[in-house]
Amino acid sequence: MLGSAVDTELVSRSHKKNKPHKVRRIIYIVLAVIVFLYLAAAIFVSLRNNITTAYALNGSISESFRTSGYVLREQEIVNAPKDGFFESVVSEGDRVKKGQVVAYMFDTQPDPSLMERLRETHSLLRSKSGEVDSNVYLDEGSGTKAIVSEKLRNMSDVRAERNLKTVRKEKSELNLMLSRKSELGDANVKTAEQLRGEIDGLKQQAGGCVEIVAPVGGIFSSGIDNMEDKLTMDNIDSISPSFITELDKTDISTSDTVAYGQPLCKIVNNYKWAYVTLVDEEKVADLREGASVNLLFYDLANDSVKGTVVHISDADNGKKAVVINTNRFVDGVYSSSRANAEIILVKVDGIRLPVSCLHVQEGVTGVYVVRLDTAKFVPVNVKYKNEQWTVVSAAETDGSGSKLQVYDEVIVEGKNISDGKVVR
User: Fold this and answer.
1) Considering the entire predicted model, what is its pTM?
2) What CATH code is carried by the domain that includes residue 287?
């Protein structure tokens, strides 16, 4: 009996000892299940609401291609009145007036220092003509210094009186005075007649020279390349690919000496000129006559100019001739017949986004932006789009006040996105 009682007590103690272990195991199992369900739910939500976003930033879309071509111009060619050496007294690209002396023809090569003095004297005469009374040119002498000092005292007085209109007038006159002073250097006070006399004296020293005057007003260029008679504005609406192919074969050559009757220089009408180029037909498949484009002569300038497509030829061996008219000034484009250019077919500025951001909701085009961890549909105006990008602007709303703004976080991709849906 005693042994039986002892066994019963031992079993009871064993059960009591194992009970806490079972409870802990149950708790662990329950916790593991909870963690598993939580992680499964989190993964499910993450996969369901997985989104990629982009920030709305200002940008542009540009569709363009680079090409080489020719500059067509309205221009007057000046031919050599004699055999000899040609020397200009105006700079390449300067605007000149009809009848203005632009160059000289010499029997022999003139001395470089003499030509430099001749150019400087012509420059003084041109720059000051009609700017001061009695054709008197001020110098850097005591008279000019006294006038400058007086102008400065006047400006100080009127500034103290807060007369801004008079200050601006005095400043303008002072700037003109200083520019004259800078240009003339240490020369004495001279009249226009005296300057012309100096020019005559320099011409006599050179000997055997003939003046070359501008037959019309325009841009001066000494860039003669044997293509002047081909690159005219005549019949630009009938230019063919074969015409440009023949131009490519032209040998461009220059010479230090000029024979009688040969082209010396040209005066270009910069208000009416054109650019012609030969391009692959697929590059201009969507281009039409009358379309506006931009021309960037990247070897010459940093800014593009507007132009109008006036002619697109029929295709010939996969190529088309394209003629673009413009009336904008481009420094340096008048000197050479050949020019490289970038033809910009489209350039649109605005908010630039991936095209996959666009959605249509009840006939309204817009994008979804993330606001307080929810997707908000915001209408936009689509200005342009291609296969990858779109440029948009904020559209007027129905009074809700929700408009696309720069730096908004825009949803690019996401599953089952809808207005008001929690995405994070």
Assistant:
1) 0.64
2) 2.40.30.170
